Amino acid sequence: MPLEVRQELAEIEFGPAQGLTVGELRAMGYDFPWALGPDGRSRAPEGAERFEELFARAHGLLEALRPLGGRTACVTHGGLTRAVLASALQIPLTSFWRLRLPNVSSQVLACDGTSYTLVAIGLAPEEVRRRAEDPSLLGRDTTENIAEGSVK
């Protein structure tokens, strides 16, 4: 299958906050997730990506993917994944970071050409494999008994 590297799939840019602990970030007068200022805009350190910019990037990615047919897999990090889900589902900036996503998990969105629907969230790699092998499992709760390979 063809592979394409897309810059818009990169993780949120932390700029000067990259590699800092939360304590070090707070000592600089910032917090993460970035706090929202009185104007409702995220307060990121100079040179770091604000959440509004992350949302715009996620929205642009979804617009680029919208006309594609078949299945498309995107591999990225948690920050961008949250922004993509928020953009697709119209989750506001004030609450998108509350989406809890396990590391190395997959989310499945379906698009009818107009809007996106969340089909699955937080899937383990084993579950993704099962659903790829049997597309009828999309939209069904099959998270029990993965080890046994059975579906209730």
- Put simply, the count of helices is 4
What fraction, in percent, of the residue positions are helical?
25-40%
Strand content: 5-15%
Distance between termini?
Answer: 32 Å
Work out the number of β strands. 4
In N-to-C order, the SSE pattern is HEEHHEEH
Q: From the alpha-carbon coordinates, what is the Rg to the nearest angstrom?
A: 17 Å
Shape descriptor reads elongated
Question: Structural class of the secondary elements?
Answer: alpha+beta
Features:
alpha+beta; elongated; two-stranded antiparallel sheet
List the helices and strands and how they pair.
Blueprint: H1 22-27, E1 35-36, E2 42-43, H2 51-65, H3 78-89, E3 106-111, E4 116-123, H4 125-133
Antiparallel strand pairs: 1-2, 3-4
Helix pairs in contact: 2-3
Summed up:
This protein is α+β, with helices and mostly antiparallel strands. It has helices spanning 22-27, 51-65, 78-89, 125-133; strands spanning 35-36, 42-43, 106-111, 116-123. The strands form 2 sheets. A two-stranded antiparallel ribbon has the order 1-2.
